[in-house]
Amino acid sequence: MHAADIVIIGAGPAGLAAARSAAQRGVTVALVDDNPLAGGQIWRGGPQHSQHPQAGKLWAELQQMANVQWFMQSRVVGQAAAAQLLLETPQQTFKLAYRKLILATGARERLLPFPGWTLPGVTGAGGLQALVKGGYPVRGKRIVVAGSGPLLLAVAATLRQHGAQVLHVLEQSSRRKLAGFALQLVRTPEKLRQAWQLRSQLAGVPYHAGSYVLQALGEQQLRAVQVTIAERRLSIECDYLACGYGLLPNTELAQALGCRIADSAIQVNEHQQTSIENVYCAGEGTGVGGVDLALAEGHIAGGQAAALGPPAQRWLTQRRAQQAFAERLQDAFALRPELRRLCDPDTLVCRCEDVAYADLQAHASWRSAKLQTRCGMGPCQGRVCGGASDFLFGWKPDSVRLPISPARISSLITLHSTSPVDGD
Hints:
- By secondary structure, the chain is an alpha/beta fold.
- The chain contains 13 helices and 21 strands.
- It is globular, with a radius of gyration of 22 Å.
């Protein structure tokens, strides 16, 4: 059995900020993440390598704190008992007890179905970026980047830096909405600077507003994509399509603990506390808002969990400003209704269980579709088709299936028994 005063799930910017804020009080802190390195998706490869002004300093301070424990490559299987989680590593399963819990579980990419989206060569935009950062070769490959949100520019820049030929960046939001959003970037100078840098790195790459993928073409491998650009249909030959429609908060663990969820995000008060006593949340789980909002919420959550007193005005001000930015972001990149009409009857929506669009149209709810078609019953546990069906049909999952993530049979037995656990 392991134990800490404060357990933090997720070692991205929000989790690291919460750990530093809490550990400064002298309490014991345990950081849990299923990746081998800290940093989350935004600081992939370790915060010490990020160009963000706070990343290196945050990392250096945490390395000097003896009261911070690290549990990397550790997945949460479920709740073992009150104030106790069951974790699984590649080697063992063990329990981790806490007095306070901070959820910094981040977000995942939203993928939407269209004809051909299951072809090899079609990936998530953020997914391909992560692969490339991990060493996946794309030099010389012809790539179309499509979907919605500022992430598309970051993805395209990463691909170009690694030698890919980025043919087009297709943004589904309208030119009018993007222009309005761009004008308001003066309220957040740092965001304006980042946008300018990304656009400079993509000089010569066509960026199209009001444009999106209609279908991916190929037999055993992607060979082209059919798109609409400024209301014109075009076919573009390519090797990869990197397509993502923004991010969705990871709320599964919070739901399993009984935390209140609204608008697909974990609900928190001004202290970042959820509806469950002694459980806090920070970062994208409370709503997608970017790294600076995650850092502010993390510092506030860590301080409040450690009973540090009122949060520093700096973090309250940063949280307020970044929440306003997140609202403008959400409005500017709201998904157009045309994307709901892309699926053919035989287009797969649930890729794990091979459930087609036509099979789902006969159902009125997520529960009905799940019971009758096995939609959401595969290895991803609805993380892909859940977000898609929410957009397509307005369905909201009404429960969470345990385990929180795929686990060994021995871990499942432990979760549902009182027998001793390896590593206790």
